[in-house]
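Service request form, structural biology core

Requester: graduate student, group of Dr. S.
Request type: structure prediction, single chain
Budget code: on file
Notes: please return the result as structure tokens.

Sequence provided:
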Amino acid sequence: MSVANGGSGESSTPNGVVKGESDQKSGNGKGPLAVELSSSKAPSGVPEKPQDDWQVAYTWAFLVKFGLRDKIKGLETPEDLERCLTQPVALRPDDVLEGILIRFLANLKPGIKQLRDDNIQSHLSSYISDQLQHSNEFTVWDDPWPQHEDQRGACCSTAPDRLEQGRLRPLGEDPKERVKRNPIKQMEEKGQGIFELDWQERAKLLRQLVDWQLTHAENIRQTIKEQHNMSKKAYDELKNPIKLEPLGTDRKKVRIWSLDGEFASGNPFKRPCPLVPYTFTRDELQAEQERFAAYGAEKAPKLIGSGPKGKPTKVELRDHNKLVKGIQDEAKLAEKLAGLAPNVEKEEARVQRVRKKIQQEAQNRALFEMRNQERSTRTRRSTQKVDYTYDGWDSEEDDEPRRSGRRGRGAADSEPESRRPVIPGERRSARVSARQAMEEDEYEEQPTRSPTPPPSPPKEAKPTTREVFPEGVKKVKGYAWVEDVDGGEGSDMGSQPNGDENHADSGVDGSKGEPIEID
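Core staff response, request fulfilled:
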């Protein structure tokens, strides 16, 4: 984006490009701008578009020069800055304006941590109110400097209100009344916020924040000191990366600005000095460079005066010198624009890469949110059908709860540990699991028995017989089973209370024996 000092006469071109068209004919047709740069005749109306406001160009130059553009996501071109000033909150495609305000306030108040879009308004309003109340500096919300000399009065005026004109604050002004000029507080009283300001107020706010950073921000001041170190022997002011320098002027003394790499300056010391946007695409830049080169290649005609013996008058000599200087200026300007073309190509390629990356990130974010939404609507039930048969045992056969060898488990945990579903994150002991598996295997080898019948009633005591051994024979000590003389009713095997199958508790004919003591 290039900016030139001049007047009105704009016409819209594609891609939001606005160019001035001159009605004054020159040697090659119409010139690039509309009005001669005469400070006494140039219009000083309120700009209707952000690209017509010099404060927007001023803010963009600050962002580029001090390396803040690359730290703000979505801010790549001056058009991005102009767009964020005009679009309302509901239609903003990104958070460019929020990012700019957060970055500016972080420079001014580095002690504030975690500046976000939900608290930037309160912190910024507090800082503006503090500056208005305790600082004597001129702000954009104070009475403006009069535009013309006749409004300001003579420099040696002794009028009592002379000190109250211009950039000085009115004498005796109440600081509390000055705080009321805070635009954010004014919007809060209406129930609105900072993003409901119109684009003119937003541009003024950004300009004031830039002024404060150039004056008070420590990191910005340190950068200025490093670049303006006058103690260096080989200091070159033209190579200062934060200095704004002109690309050149054309034959009508119009100074061209470039806000995307090289810079140019008009004549801002004359008032008023309106800015006319003069924006280029790559094709338009090439066309303007060829036009300047063609005019710069012309030769000035030989001066023939109208005075005696062909001697030129002072007026003719002055006009001829202007013509020669105009040709030289446009030749130099053509060289500068030719050197600017490769930078324009690199800048366009960089912007395309960054925007493509931002678009890809937005697509990935949308896909991630869509997947999260699908996952949140799904139940936690498993899609696999549950199999209730374990190890080939049918569930109908297991009517009774199984007995486990692990102590301390109730009826609810009667199922063997190896058949219980494993819960992720549950700790299991290999030693305990092996012992449980061994106990379960032993239990499975035992045949299934019928339920134990109730015990039989007690029988009458019967006399015991005593076996007598002859002398010399060793007696057998202990207990032995003898055959029951009269078999009772409860002589079946199922009458054993302990159900132990390893004892020889039955005879050949199935009768039950009784124990006798052998001495």
